[in-house]
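Quick illustration, no need to memorize.
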Amino acid sequence: MMDDVPNIVLVVPHPDYTVSVYFVDGKIVVYDVKPKLGRGVFQKLQNQDVFINKYKIMNHTLAWDLNGNNDAAGCIDIDPDTLYALEHVADGHEAV
């Protein structure tokens, strides 16, 4: 992770498999998980209950704690540089 990437302060998953990500510097991005849902570990997020209820901020980034034990080995996480590189949106509900 780059040292200059601001910390994430809030993540909000949406039923359409997007996540609003809010950074401490005020930047807001929307991450679209749909293109990844059919591949690899992301298949577990196809269960909307898991997608909506297992998310958290872990190790300074968006993660899904699949086992519920705060162990990074049991999580799906998104590189914070990837998230911060997304286009800023005016509010967290805008489409990507």
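DSSP finds two helices and six strands in the chain.
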